[in-house]
Amino acid sequence: MIPAIVVFIYLGVVLYIGIFAFRKAKSKREAEDYFLASRSLGPFVFLFSLFGTNMTAFAILGSSGHAFSNGIVTFGLMASSSGLVIPLTIFLVGTRVWALGKKYGFMTPVQMFRDRWECNHIGTVIFVVQAVLLVPYVIIGIMGGGTTLNAISGGWVPYWFGGAIVALVVMGYVFFGGMRGTAWVNTFQTILFLLFGTIAIVVIGVGMGGFGNAAEAMLNSPALAPLLTRERISPYYFFSYTFIPLSAIAFPHILIFCLTAEKMAHFKKTVIFYPLCILAIWLPCVFLGVMANRVGDVPEIRAKQEARRVLATQGKTMAPEQRDDLRDKAAGDDVILHLLKRYAPFWLAGLLGAGIMAAVMASDSQILALSTMFTEDVFAHYGGKARFGESVQVQTGRIFVVILTLFAYGVALRAPETIFELAIQYAFSGFAALSPLLIAALFWKGSTKWGALASTLWVAAAVVAVAVFQQVVPAPAPGPPVAYWSLGGTEIISRTPGGTAVFQFMPVVPMVIISALLMIVVSKLTNKPSARTVSKYFDFLRA
Amino acid sequence: MTKKLLVVVVAILYILHQDIWFWRTAHPLVFGFVPIGLFYQACFSVAAAFVMWLLVKYAWPSHLEREVEQGPAKEDRTT
C-alpha cells in the first residue's frame, strides 16, 4: 500500500513536469514547437531524454528477466553491443539528419525520404510499415504500467486501474506538453532510474548477505553455474544480436528526437556518454536478475525456478501448449519487483518502484512520434495543413494522441501480454532491417525510391513470415534447435526454444543483409532522383 | 588518414565484442562476485565510450554545423 502511494505521488510529479513546468508561450511555428520543442533542447536534456526514450519497459524489466533465465550473457547480448552500435549510428546518422532537418525543415524520417528520393506514395508505404511496427510498444507500455502498479501494491491496485492511470498520465503530458513536456519527463525519469538503480543494487546486495556468497553458491550448483558463463548461448546467436541495435536509429521516435537538439554540438555528450549510461542501468539489472536465482525464500521466484526445472527435464515429452504455459511461469520479467518487495523497506520499495515506472512509461515518445508522423506524413502531406492551417494540424496531433492511447488501453485490457512481447521482438528486427534506407539516403548518391520500396516491402514480408513461422511451428523444449528445413546436411531454417534461426543466425541477420542488397540492386536498375536533388543533399553533406 | 584509422579502431572494437575466450568460464570472480565474462563486457562499454570520444574529437562533421549556421533553406523542399 505505501509503495503504491509513493508511486502515485511520483506520477503526479511527472504529470506536473510534463504539463505545467515547461509550457512555453506560443511561437510562430506552432507545429514545430509542439512536435519538436522548436528544435531547442540543450545538451543535458538531449542526452538524458534521448537515452530515456530508448529505455523501455522491455529494456529494464525484460533485461533482468532475461538474465534470470539466461545468465550474464544478457549484458553482452543486449547492453554492451548497444553501447557500441547505438552511439555510432547517432554519430553517423543522427547528426546528418539533424543538419538536414535544420536546413530543410524536416520533422519526420518519411518527409526526408520523400524529398531525397522524389517520391510520394512510397513514403506513405514506409510510414505504414513504421507505424505498424511501433504501435505494439505503446500497448506494452500500458500493460507494463498496469502490471507494475499491481505488483508494487501487492494486488491492491487492479491491473485495469493501474493501466488506466498510466495511460492517463502519459496521455496528459504528451497532449499538453508535446515534445518539450515529454523530453523533460524523460530526463527526470532517467535520472531517477540511475539514482534508484544504484540504491536498489546496494539494498538487495546487503539483504542477500553480500553478492560474493551468492556468486560462490551459484558456482557450486550444477544447475546455476552455467548462468555465470555463456555456455548455453551459441556464438552465432551472440553475433546476430549485434545487428539488433541498428534498430535504434531507424525507430521514428529516436530519429525524430535527433531533430530536437538546439545545436549539433549537443550530440557530442550523447555519443560519448551513451555507452556509460547503458552500463550504469543495465549492469545492475542484469546482475540482480542473475542473483535472483539464489533467493530461496521468495515463493514467486521459487515457482519460476521449479517451472524452469520441469521444462528442462520433462519438456521434450510435453505438448507445445504445456511447454508454452511453463515458459510463461518461468519468465522472470518481474523478478526485480519481487526482490524489492523482499529486501527493500516499504518507502524505498515505493521509490524504486517509481524508478521502474519511469522505464515502463517510456511509451510517451512513441505516442508523440506516431502523432507527429500522422500529422506530418499523412495530414499535412495530403493537404490538411494547407487547407486548415497549422493550429488545426497541432489539434489533430493532440486528438491522435488521445485516440491512440485509448486504443492501446483497450487492447491492453483484452489481449495477452505475450503477443505484444513477441511483436516487439519482431519489431526490433524489422527496424534494424529498415536501417539501410537511412544509410542509403545519407551516404549513397545512387539510391532510388524503388530501392527503398523494395527494402521496405522485404522487411514487411520478412517480419510477417517470421511471425507466422513461429506461430505455426511450436517452440521446442530447452536444448538444441530443431531443424525445419535442411539441405545437404546444412540447417537452413530451425526453430529454437526462443525463436527462429536461419543458418544458425537470428533472422535479423539475413533481414538486414537482404534489405541492403535489395536497396543496392534495385537502385542500380532504376532511375535516380534529379541531379538537382542529389546535389542538394550531397553538396551539403560533403561540403 | 585519421578517419581510416578510426574505422579500423571501430572494427577492432566490434570484433573484441565477440569474446569467445571467456565463453565457458566464470573465473576469476572480479571483486569476489563479478564473473570475468560480465566484467569484460562492462570494460568493453567503457572502451566504447573512449572510442566515441575519439570519433567526436577527430572525426566530428563540423562542416554540417557551419552550413546550417549560414541560414535555413526550408523553402527548398520539393515535397
Task: Provide an overview of this structure.
The complex is a heterodimer of chains A (about 550) and B (about 80). Helices cover about 75% and strands about 5% of the residues of chain A. Chain A has helices at about 1-20, 30-35, 45-55, 55-70, 75-105, 110-115, 120-150, 160-205, 210-220, 235-240, 245-250, 250-260, 265-290, 300-315, 320-330, 335-345, 345-360, 365-380, 385-390, 390-415, 415-445, 450-470, 510-525, 530-540, and strands spanning about 480-485, 490-495, 500. In chain B, about 60% of the residues lie in helices and about 0% in strands. Chain B is built from three helices and no strands. Chain B has helices spanning about 1-15, 35-60, 60-70. Chain B is elongated, with a radius of gyration of 20 Å. The mean pLDDT of chain B is about 85.
Mean pLDDT of chain B: 87
Helix content, binned percent of chain B: 55-70%
Helix/strand order of chain B = HHH
Order of helices and strands of chain A: HHHHHHHHHHHHHHHHHHHHHHEEEHH
